[in-house]
Known about the structure:
This protein has a single domain, classed as PH-domain like. The chain is 29% helix and 32% strand. The protein is built from two helices and six strands, in the order ββββββαα. A three-stranded antiparallel beta sheet has the order 1-2-3, with helices on one face. The chain has a three-stranded antiparallel beta sheet with strand order 4-5-6, with helices on one face. It is globular and about 35 Å long.
Amino acid sequence: xxxxxxxxxxxxxxxxxxxxxxxxxxxxxxxxxxxxxxxxxxxxxxxxxxxxxxxxxxxxxxxxxxxxxxxxxxxxxxxxxxxxx
Length: 85
């Protein structure tokens, strides 16, 4: 369970902890919609890997936040979603 907005993704972990990934602080975001994961890079040398059944939604929100509407049309990570329409 979690929360997805245009500013962050908030996740509840199996351990009972909650973590926030803020879009505005990212220096790199590598989603893989087909395999259901994304790597979040905040430039601190610690990559954060997240997997989710909702990765398509997370990828769209992250790419829109980081690259704007042009990213939704051009980013290669969303090619599978664009081809499905």
